[in-house]
Amino acid sequence: xxxxxxxxxxxxxxxxxxxxxxxxxxxxxxxxxxxxxxxxxxxxxxxxxxxxxxxxxxxxxxxxxxxxxxxxxxxxxxxxxxxxxxxxxxxxxxxxxxxxxxxxxxxxxxxxxxxxxxxxxxxxxxxxxxxxxxxxxxxxxxxxxxxxxxxxxxxxxxxxxxxxxxxxxxxxxxxxxxxxxxxxxxxxxxxxxxxxxxxxxxxxxxxxxxxxxxxxxxxxxxxxxxxxxxxxxxxxxxxxxxxxxxxxxxxxxxxxxxxxxxxxxxx
Length: 267
Prior knowledge:
- The chain has 267 residues and is an alpha/beta fold.
- The chain folds into 2 domains: 12-84, Urease, subunit C, domain 1, CATH 2.30.40; 88-257, Alpha-Beta Barrel (TIM Barrel), CATH 3.20.20.
- The protein is 30% helix and 25% strand.
- It is built from 8 helices and 12 strands.
- Strands 1, 2, 3, 4 and 5 form a 5-stranded mixed beta sheet that branches. Strands 6-7-8-9-10 form a 5-stranded parallel beta sheet. Strands 11-12 form a two-stranded parallel sheet.
- Helix 8 (244-252) links the parallel strand 11 (237-238) and strand 12.
- Helix 4 runs parallel beside helix 6.
- The longest helix has 19 residues, at 122-140.
- The two termini are 39 Å apart.
């Protein structure tokens, strides 16, 4: 059986009849998983003695053990009492910081339960521009990991007198990426929070490219005085709550706060 990835699973609206037919026992599944326990995040319980019917890469039904039909099912896999759980989602990661390709990164990520990542590859974009981002996406499409792109928002990362950058993500370029790559689902961390605070035209034009397409905007902001203006610009979340006070400021301003292992000085 070929690996199931985001790109091999058809849209739900195209397969509802097939899924219902499998769940009702009128059609065979593509895969039957037996001997399973289910970690239910809805009921917050471990459900013992279950079988899972999979069709088109989607779960069609979870049934009591021994009740699912084996007729016509090409693949039956016994997990021998193992627990089936939803995969973990990493909402913000710079894979290139690991010095690994996406395919190589996928192996340790999957072994630790992470099945989906939101890739902000602004580091490689700052060196190789759009071509570098596209190179990583091509690699990601071959990985057994669901990868979404948060389009780098602050390229160059600093002023020309402070760095020699290889990339330049203008508002027009950001908009074109959103319109070209289906993986592009959000704007990457808006690191130039002071420019957002000051109303810099280019910075806000990049934000606008995401907002007018209905995409969320990842945040990156230090300093409590900047939070109100930062939130007012449409920023959705932040992973830079360095202490409890600013975390509460972010929450009160309506931003999601991501918990992270480490601080900006060590991670």
